[in-house]
Amino acid sequence: MANIVWCNIAMFLLVSLFLTDDAVVVLDALDNVPNNIKNQPYRTGYHFQPPKNWMNGPMIYKGIYHLFYQWNQNGAVMDVNKTVWGHATSTDLINWITLSPAIRPSRPSDINGCWSGSVTILPNGKPVILYTGNDRYNRQVQNLVKPKNLTDPYLRHWTKSPENPLVTPSPVNHINSSAFRDPTTAWFGRDGRWRITTGSQEGRRGLAILHTSKDFVIWKQSPKPLHYHDGTGMWECPDFFPVARTDSRGLDTSFSSGPMVKHVLKVSLTDTFNDYYTIGTYDEVRDVYVPDKGFVQDETAPRYDYGKFYASKTFYDSVNQRRILWGWVNESSPEKDNIKKGWAGLQAIPRKVWLDESGKRLVQWPVKEIERLRTTQVKWGNKVLKGGGSVMEVHGVTAPQADVEVFFKVSGFDLEKADVIEPGWTDPQLICSQRNASSGLGPFGLMVLASKNMEEYTSVNIRIFRAGENSKEHVVVMCSDQSTSSLEKGNDKTTYGAFLDISPYQPISLRTLIDKSIVESFGGKGKTCITSRVYPKLAIGERTHLFAFNKGSQNVNVLSLSAWSMKSSL
Fold first, then answer.
1. How many CB atoms lie within 10 A of CB 233?
2. CA distance 567 to 570
3. Of all helices (H) and strands (E), which one includes residue 429?
4. How confident is the model over 5-17, as a mean pLDDT?
C-alpha cells in the first residue's frame, strides 16, 4: 500500500477543507487559502494547488476545463484510505475555481478510498468517469460515475452506478487484487466496442490489462493484455493515445489507426517513481500494442520529464485540437516540513504534447494560455558570456516568479574545442552531478532562485561534448542542478540531467518557468524537459535574483533573452 501513487486525474495536493457531502461550493482558489498558507514563500503563484493539504482525469466539457485530482482533505500526507476526487474548473487552464469533491468514499466498492481513473466523453457528448475504488476487502476494483445534471457546465454533482463495481480482480482472471488500478480513457473500436486498459503486475511483469464493453457497464477481459514487459514491476497510471505523424494537432483517443498515426503508451513505474513512454503501433484487429524498433517499455524508455514529474495524464482538447499533458510534482522537503506548511504537491503547468518530425520522441511546450500572465518584459540581444566564469544578472523582472526564454549560440570554431566525452559517461544525470567538471563548452545557462551573492541558486544549464577524438558529432546534455539550491540541509537536492538531441551548430533554446519553489525547464523547444522543486532560505521574495552564466572556457553568445515577470493566477 505504501507504494501506491495516484495518477493525475487532474493532480495531487495537500490542503484541508471540510465540506458536507451535499455541499455545492464554488470557491476562488486564492480566497479559499488561509493567509498563513497563502503568504508562505514556497507556495506557488501560477501553478495549480488545492487550498491546502495533499493532492493528485482532466477534460473539457461545454467549453470549461475540469481538473479532478486525488486529494487528502485532512492533512499534508498521503492517506490512501481517505482519498477523494478534488474538482476544479477553468476557462483557460490557468485560473481555477475549486468545487466540492466530485467523488467520496461511500459505497462498499470504494469505502477505503477513491483512487485514480479517467474521464471518457461518450458519443452523445456525455462525460463519464471510470475510477479505482479500494473496496471493503481492500481489493482494487473499477467503478463508474455519471454527472447528475448535464445542463450544469460545472458538473458539480456525480452519481455512482448501481452496478459498481464493474470490474473486479479474481484468481480466475489472474488479476492481482492489490495491483489493479488506474483505468485509462476509453477508446471506441471499429467493432462497436469500448476498450480500457488498467495497470497491473504479475510477479515482476508489468501489464496493461485490456477490457472491452458494448455498453460501458458490462466489461469483459481480453485474452491478452494490451502490452506487457517482464522485470518492470507495477505499471501505475497507464495512458494510451494516438498522435499524428505529420503535424502537432492532437487526436481524439478513439481516432482510428492508420499509416499517418502512431500510438503512445505511457506507464508510471513504482520501482523508480518515473514516467516512461514508448511510441509504436496499435493493431486494432489483434488488440495489441507493439512498440517501434528501439523502444522497450522499461527504464530505458524516454521520459516526459527527467526531474520530479509522475503519475501523468493526457486528455484531448477538442476545442483547440491539441493533446494536453498534466503531471504531478511532489515535494523535495521532509514530511515534517510539509505538515508544518499545511500542504504538499502541485501540478506542473499543462503542456501541449505532440510527435516530433523524427517520429522518435514527444515534444512538450507550456500551453499558450500561460503567456497571459506575463507582465513586465526584459530583453537582451547579442550579448557575450565570456569563458572562464562570466555571470550577468537579469534585472527588471520578479525573479521568484518569472518566465525566461533564451537562445544561445556557440561558434563552429569553438565547437571543435569541446571536450571529448568519456566513454563511460552514458548517464547524463551523473554527468550533470559533476559540478566541478567545467569543460570547454559549459556548463552555461541560467542561475534561478539565486541569492545576491550566490550562496544559493539552482543551475539550469547546457554542456556540449565531442562524441570522439576525431568525431565531428557532438553530445549535448541538459542539467537542472539543485545541489546549491538551499542552505537547508534536510531537502532532496538531486541533480537531474538528460541528453538533448539537437545540433549545437544551431541556436540552442532554453525556456524556464520559475515559480517560488518549482523550476520547469524546456530545452530544444521542448525536446527535453526537467522539473525541480527547491526551497531557498535566502533567495526569497525581493531577495531573489536571476543570472545568466558561463563556466566553460569558451565564449557563448546570447542571441536573445526574454524574461517576463509573471502575475499570480487565481
1. 18
2. 10
3. helix 428-433
4. 39
What are the backbone angles phi and psi of residue 536, rounded to the nearest 5°? -65, 155
CA–CA dist 204, 270 (Å, integer): 11
The answer to whether the beta carbons of residues 350 and 376 sit under 8 Å apart is: no
Tell me how far apart the terminal alpha carbons of the chain are, to the nearest angstrom. 35
Q: Determine the Cα–Cα distance for residues 428 and 430; give it in Å rounded to an integer.
A: 5
Rounded CA-CA distance 248/246 in Å is: 7
**Side-chain half-sphere of 499: how many Cα atoms within 13 Å?**
15
- Give residue-wise pLDDT tens across range 345-360: 999 999 999 999 999 9
Region of residue 150 (phi > 0: left; psi between -120 and 50: alpha; otherwise: beta): alpha
Q: In what order do the strands lie in the sheet with 458-466?
A: 390-393, 545-550, 441-450, 458-466, 474-481, 495-499
With 70 as the cut, is the pLDDT of residue 3 above it? Answer: no
Report the alpha-carbon distance of residue 329 to residue 309 in Å, rounded: 5
State the pLDDT at residue 82: 81
The residue with greater pLDDT, 51 or 482, is 482
Q: Rounded mean pLDDT of 163-189? A: 94
Average pLDDT over residues 194-212: 97
Query: What is the C-alpha to C-alpha distance for residues 180 and 200, in angstroms, rounded to an integer?
Result: 5
Angle of CA points 67, 355, 200, to nearest 5°: 55
H or E element at residue 27:
strand 27-28
Query: What is the layout of strands, in order, in the sheet containing 274-283?
Result: 235-244, 261-269, 274-283, 288-291
Question: Which pTM value belongs to this model?
Answer: 0.94
Cα distance between residue 291 and residue 232, in whole Å: 16
Residues 6+ apart with CB under 8 A from 464: 410, 415, 418, 439, 441, 442, 474, 475, 476, 477, 504
Helix (H, G, I), strand (E, B) or coil at 322: strand
Helix ranges, 215-373 (H): 335-341
The Cα–Cα gap between 80 and 76 comes to 12
What grid cell was written down for 84? 477523494
Q: Is 155 helix (H, G, I), strand (E, B) or coil?
A: coil
- As a whole number of angstroms, the distance between CA 404 and CA 249 comes to 25
**Alpha-helix residue ranges (DSSP H) falling in 434-510:** none
For position 5, what pLDDT does the model report? 52
Task: Give the pLDDT confidence score for residue 488 in this predicted structure.
Answer: 95
b/e burial code for range 165-174 (CB count within 10 A of at least 16 → b): bbbbbeeeee
The answer to whether residue 39 scores a pLDDT higher than 80 is: no
